[in-house]
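Q: Protein A?
A:
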Amino acid sequence: MSTHETQSDRQTVLTTFETTPGTCQDLLDLLTDAYDTYISKQPGFISARLHVNDAQTRIANYSQWTRREDFQAMLRSDEMRKRNRVINDLCRSFEPVMYDVVATF
């Protein structure tokens, strides 16, 4: 389960995928498989959530990691590099951005 505490020892990553209604479900299937079979098993993984807008033109992903280095190691792995090439073919763009939680309400 994700936590929203202000802790400097956690890394939050928000990734936005621009897609089309015709490829949204295919992209969701790939992302779900990546989390089920690989990402969730990597060192430092805490949790993730996938969100889809009403028009099915954007997917947002929220994930938390123990450390920034854990996320970077997963992203740079051969497995994720292969997966990201396929994911890239199903969307106009995607960009993971690392954030620190600074306030909770």
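Q: Protein B?
A:
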Amino acid sequence: MSDRLSVDSSVCIGSGQCALTAPTVFDQDDDGYGMVRPGREDGAGDPLVREAVRACPVQAISFQEG
């Protein structure tokens, strides 16, 4: 089983903290809400992913270790 990273778009407020903290993994969609970059759903070993999860003001990011 592999790690799985996701952003709950129904909770996200578009603060952009995820994209600022781990820009190689997160981005913002056309509406300004956080999203995981395509192909980066496993976090790709980026050490800043955990910090981005903590930085989200509404806890919209989930990271499940496999």
